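In this supplementary section we document a worked example of the pipeline. Step one takes a protein sequence of length 352 as its only input; no multiple sequence alignment statistics are reported here. Step two produces a three-dimensional model, which step three serialises into structure tokens for compact storage. The input and output of this example are shown verbatim.
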Amino acid sequence: MRSSLSILLLAACGSSSSTATPPATAADTTKTGAAQHTIALPGAPEGGVFLDYLAYDAGHHKVWVPAAGTGRVDVIDSTTGKLTSLEGWVTKEMERNGHKRLMGPTSATVGDGVVYVGNRGDSTICAIDASTLAKRGCVTLDAMPDGLQYVASTEEVWVTTPRDKSIRILDASKADQPSLKPDKLSFDGEPEGFAVDNKRGVFFTNLEDKDKTLAIDLKTHATTKTWEPKCGEDGPKGLIFDDATNHLIVVCPASIETLDVEHDGAMIGNLAVGDGLDAIDYVPAKHLVFAAAGKAEKMVVAKLADDGKLVAVATITTAKGARNAVATEDGTAYVADGPLGTVIVVPPMANP
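The serialised model returned by step three reads:
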């Protein structure tokens, strides 16, 4: 993800012909519900820690927080609040946009009985036993990993590697011993964000620097659709796919929008959230979208209607730089607050 420490988080058939309309606003729907609280991340320095992709493992009720320069992956039990730190991850000082920072594990995705963690410090992807939290097999890439997405239908992990404009694919048929496949999907831009339609066999990603959203066939690896979300110069960020309605939510820097996959990516819903969006999360059973905007210092919770419209049901004050929320099945949200080295826990609303 192209973002600083102080702010947190398809080709051949042509672009969408729909006309963009001004997004709805979430400004008038403030609800706070129960009091939020924070969980401090061990080893976070005074200047904060880079936090990018979090993951929620519903089967084990655990929130995974790769904590970059601390050399830890922190695992929070969502039922008890207990935090367990997995230590010993390689870190490396890197410079980006004129700023130096210590990088390490920054991404996670939940597989079959394991959680895969991507480490920018040494370009590895490692499998962690979801029950025992023991580290299993690792794979080293020749490019720095960004986002990870487990693909259940093909037993693979797709890894975005934007620095060399590609996606790498891991064989996860032996879940705890992933291996690198020879497939390298190259693009004319930087892949950012990910979502998968296992039923229809499609992987979605954005080209952040080209302001495009791609649909890729899981078996042939061909780009079958290219859409233009019109996010602007900073490009699209995260993605969420709703299997039940065949709708794709694209995250722009300050808004989220719904594309109708069945009708060539036509825009059918949009909602202004606030600047500093990156990755978002979705709870299908409740039809709730959780979008935390780091610069705007707030999180908007929105309903995704069957017709693709997005309606804000809550606007919750968070903190400067807090972004990339993940949510549990009951609607509890965990928001990465990198500048303060904490995770903000926002309880679910009584009647969303």
